[in-house]
Amino acid sequence: MEYTTDSDSKLKSAEFDYVVLAHPLNQNASISAPKGLLPPLLEYKTVDSTLISGELDHEKFGFPSDESFDRLKGLSILPTKRGYEDDRNTLFKALMKVRSVAAKETEDGGAPSCWVTYSLPERCLYPGQDMCSSYFKKGVLIRSSRWLAYPDLSPLPNPSRTMGKFILSPGLIYANALERAACSMELAVISARNAALIIHTETTANQEQAP
Questions:
Q1: Is residue 35 part of a domain?
Q2: Is the pTM of this model over 0.90?
Q3: What digits encode the pLDDT tens for the residues 182-199?
Q4: How many CA atoms lie within 13 A of 136 on its CB side?
Q5: Does the residue 14 lie in any domain?
Q6: Which of 166, 179, 159, 161 is nearest to 45 (CA)?
Protein backbone atom coordinates (compact mmCIF):
# COMPACT_ATOMS: atom_id res chain seq x y z
CA MET A 1 0.00 0.00 0.00
CA GLU A 2 1.16 3.54 -0.75
CA TYR A 3 0.24 6.33 1.63
CA THR A 4 1.14 9.73 3.09
CA THR A 5 0.68 11.11 6.60
CA ASP A 6 -0.54 14.48 7.90
CA SER A 7 2.95 15.35 9.09
CA ASP A 8 4.80 14.15 5.99
CA SER A 9 3.55 14.48 2.42
CA LYS A 10 6.26 12.19 1.08
CA LEU A 11 4.79 9.06 -0.50
CA LYS A 12 5.56 5.89 1.46
CA SER A 13 4.87 2.26 0.66
CA ALA A 14 4.61 -0.80 2.86
CA GLU A 15 3.09 -4.27 3.00
CA PHE A 16 0.49 -5.15 5.61
CA ASP A 17 -1.34 -8.33 6.51
CA TYR A 18 -4.52 -6.29 6.98
CA VAL A 19 -5.56 -2.73 6.24
CA VAL A 20 -8.64 -1.29 7.95
CA LEU A 21 -10.14 1.63 6.06
CA ALA A 22 -11.66 3.60 8.94
CA HIS A 23 -12.21 6.98 7.26
CA PRO A 24 -15.72 7.29 5.78
CA LEU A 25 -15.73 7.44 2.00
CA ASN A 26 -17.26 10.91 1.83
CA GLN A 27 -16.70 13.86 -0.49
CA ASN A 28 -13.43 14.77 1.26
CA ALA A 29 -11.88 11.30 1.12
CA SER A 30 -8.49 11.29 -0.63
CA ILE A 31 -8.27 7.56 -1.27
CA SER A 32 -7.66 5.97 -4.64
CA ALA A 33 -7.85 2.31 -5.62
CA PRO A 34 -8.36 0.16 -8.72
CA LYS A 35 -11.78 0.64 -10.30
CA GLY A 36 -14.51 -1.36 -8.61
CA LEU A 37 -12.57 -2.03 -5.41
CA LEU A 38 -14.04 0.75 -3.26
CA PRO A 39 -17.73 1.59 -2.81
CA PRO A 40 -18.87 4.90 -4.33
CA LEU A 41 -18.29 8.11 -2.38
CA LEU A 42 -21.25 9.37 -0.37
CA GLU A 43 -22.22 12.99 0.17
CA TYR A 44 -22.02 13.64 3.91
CA LYS A 45 -23.97 16.31 5.79
CA THR A 46 -21.93 19.13 7.33
CA VAL A 47 -22.76 19.68 11.02
CA ASP A 48 -21.50 22.19 13.61
CA SER A 49 -20.96 21.06 17.19
CA THR A 50 -20.77 24.03 19.57
CA LEU A 51 -19.89 23.83 23.27
CA ILE A 52 -21.09 26.74 25.42
CA SER A 53 -20.73 27.50 29.12
CA GLY A 54 -23.39 29.66 30.71
CA GLU A 55 -26.96 30.22 31.78
CA LEU A 56 -29.76 29.22 29.46
CA ASP A 57 -32.37 31.89 28.69
CA HIS A 58 -35.48 30.38 30.27
CA GLU A 59 -37.93 32.60 28.40
CA LYS A 60 -36.72 31.34 25.02
CA PHE A 61 -37.99 27.85 25.88
CA GLY A 62 -40.97 28.66 28.10
CA PHE A 63 -39.32 27.41 31.29
CA PRO A 64 -40.15 28.98 34.68
CA SER A 65 -37.71 31.77 35.52
CA ASP A 66 -36.70 30.06 38.78
CA GLU A 67 -35.97 26.72 37.08
CA SER A 68 -32.43 25.58 37.80
CA PHE A 69 -30.55 23.15 35.59
CA ASP A 70 -27.41 23.02 37.72
CA ARG A 71 -28.30 19.75 39.44
CA LEU A 72 -29.56 18.02 36.32
CA LYS A 73 -27.12 15.50 34.92
CA GLY A 74 -28.71 15.60 31.51
CA LEU A 75 -31.27 17.59 29.58
CA SER A 76 -31.97 17.50 25.86
CA ILE A 77 -34.02 19.98 23.84
CA LEU A 78 -34.95 18.55 20.45
CA PRO A 79 -37.14 20.59 18.08
CA THR A 80 -39.90 18.68 16.33
CA LYS A 81 -39.84 18.45 12.56
CA ARG A 82 -42.46 21.19 12.43
CA GLY A 83 -40.62 23.26 15.03
CA TYR A 84 -37.41 23.19 12.99
CA GLU A 85 -38.52 23.15 9.36
CA ASP A 86 -41.46 25.56 9.69
CA ASP A 87 -39.85 27.92 12.20
CA ARG A 88 -36.81 29.28 10.40
CA ASN A 89 -35.75 31.07 13.59
CA THR A 90 -34.87 27.77 15.27
CA LEU A 91 -31.10 27.57 14.85
CA PHE A 92 -30.27 24.16 16.32
CA LYS A 93 -31.18 20.54 15.65
CA ALA A 94 -30.34 19.58 19.24
CA LEU A 95 -29.33 21.38 22.44
CA MET A 96 -28.12 19.26 25.35
CA LYS A 97 -26.70 19.79 28.80
CA VAL A 98 -23.28 18.21 29.23
CA ARG A 99 -20.33 18.32 31.58
CA SER A 100 -17.15 19.80 30.15
CA VAL A 101 -13.64 19.46 31.54
CA ALA A 102 -12.72 22.50 29.44
CA ALA A 103 -14.94 24.90 31.41
CA LYS A 104 -13.34 26.72 34.35
CA GLU A 105 -14.81 26.22 37.80
CA THR A 106 -16.99 28.94 39.33
CA GLU A 107 -15.94 30.94 42.39
CA ASP A 108 -17.76 28.56 44.75
CA GLY A 109 -15.82 25.61 43.33
CA GLY A 110 -18.67 24.21 41.28
CA ALA A 111 -18.74 23.63 37.56
CA PRO A 112 -20.84 26.01 35.43
CA SER A 113 -23.62 24.67 33.25
CA CYS A 114 -22.30 23.54 29.88
CA TRP A 115 -24.35 22.94 26.78
CA VAL A 116 -23.66 21.48 23.37
CA THR A 117 -25.63 22.39 20.27
CA TYR A 118 -25.74 20.64 16.92
CA SER A 119 -26.66 22.81 13.96
CA LEU A 120 -26.40 23.00 10.18
CA PRO A 121 -24.35 25.79 8.56
CA GLU A 122 -27.09 26.53 6.02
CA ARG A 123 -29.32 27.56 8.95
CA CYS A 124 -26.70 28.98 11.31
CA LEU A 125 -23.46 30.07 9.69
CA TYR A 126 -21.78 31.38 12.86
CA PRO A 127 -22.98 29.07 15.65
CA GLY A 128 -20.41 30.29 18.17
CA GLN A 129 -21.85 33.79 18.37
CA ASP A 130 -25.43 33.11 17.25
CA MET A 131 -26.16 30.38 19.81
CA CYS A 132 -24.77 32.49 22.67
CA SER A 133 -26.78 35.57 21.72
CA SER A 134 -30.00 33.72 20.88
CA TYR A 135 -30.40 31.16 23.66
CA PHE A 136 -28.26 32.23 26.62
CA LYS A 137 -28.38 35.06 29.16
CA LYS A 138 -24.70 34.65 29.81
CA GLY A 139 -23.03 32.40 27.31
CA VAL A 140 -19.31 31.86 26.79
CA LEU A 141 -18.14 29.95 23.75
CA ILE A 142 -15.78 27.10 24.62
CA ARG A 143 -15.35 25.50 21.22
CA SER A 144 -17.12 25.11 17.89
CA SER A 145 -16.23 22.35 15.43
CA ARG A 146 -17.48 21.64 11.93
CA TRP A 147 -17.29 18.15 10.46
CA LEU A 148 -18.86 15.80 7.95
CA ALA A 149 -21.19 13.92 10.27
CA TYR A 150 -23.34 11.47 8.31
CA PRO A 151 -24.64 10.70 4.81
CA ASP A 152 -28.18 11.35 3.65
CA LEU A 153 -30.00 8.30 4.98
CA SER A 154 -32.85 6.71 3.07
CA PRO A 155 -34.45 3.25 2.78
CA LEU A 156 -32.34 0.81 0.79
CA PRO A 157 -34.41 -1.11 -1.79
CA ASN A 158 -32.00 -4.06 -1.85
CA PRO A 159 -29.85 -4.01 1.31
CA SER A 160 -27.91 -7.17 0.46
CA ARG A 161 -26.53 -5.47 -2.67
CA THR A 162 -26.50 -1.78 -1.73
CA MET A 163 -25.51 -1.89 1.95
CA GLY A 164 -21.80 -2.28 1.36
CA LYS A 165 -19.24 -4.90 2.31
CA PHE A 166 -16.89 -5.08 5.27
CA ILE A 167 -14.33 -7.11 3.29
CA LEU A 168 -13.55 -5.23 0.07
CA SER A 169 -10.77 -7.63 -0.92
CA PRO A 170 -8.54 -10.09 0.95
CA GLY A 171 -6.86 -8.11 3.72
CA LEU A 172 -8.78 -4.86 3.04
CA ILE A 173 -11.59 -4.13 5.50
CA TYR A 174 -13.98 -1.18 5.33
CA ALA A 175 -15.21 -0.37 8.84
CA ASN A 176 -18.01 1.93 7.67
CA ALA A 177 -19.86 -0.61 5.55
CA LEU A 178 -23.16 0.15 7.31
CA GLU A 179 -23.00 3.92 6.81
CA ARG A 180 -25.74 3.97 4.16
CA ALA A 181 -28.23 2.48 6.63
CA ALA A 182 -27.23 4.11 9.92
CA CYS A 183 -24.53 6.43 11.19
CA SER A 184 -23.70 7.26 14.81
CA MET A 185 -20.90 7.11 17.36
CA GLU A 186 -22.34 3.89 18.75
CA LEU A 187 -22.39 2.31 15.31
CA ALA A 188 -18.79 3.40 14.76
CA VAL A 189 -17.81 1.41 17.87
CA ILE A 190 -19.73 -1.62 16.59
CA SER A 191 -18.10 -1.30 13.16
CA ALA A 192 -14.63 -1.12 14.70
CA ARG A 193 -15.38 -4.25 16.70
CA ASN A 194 -16.59 -6.00 13.55
CA ALA A 195 -13.30 -5.18 11.82
CA ALA A 196 -11.33 -6.51 14.79
CA LEU A 197 -13.41 -9.71 14.87
CA ILE A 198 -12.86 -10.29 11.15
CA ILE A 199 -9.09 -10.01 11.57
CA HIS A 200 -9.11 -12.20 14.68
CA THR A 201 -11.26 -14.87 13.01
CA GLU A 202 -9.13 -15.00 9.87
CA THR A 203 -5.77 -14.99 11.66
CA THR A 204 -6.94 -17.68 14.08
CA ALA A 205 -8.12 -19.84 11.17
CA ASN A 206 -4.80 -19.35 9.37
CA GLN A 207 -2.85 -20.37 12.47
CA GLU A 208 -4.94 -23.51 12.88
CA GLN A 209 -4.36 -24.49 9.25
CA ALA A 210 -0.61 -23.88 9.42
CA PRO A 211 1.47 -27.11 9.50
A1: no
A2: no
A3: 777 888 899 899 999 999
A4: 24
A5: yes
A6: 179
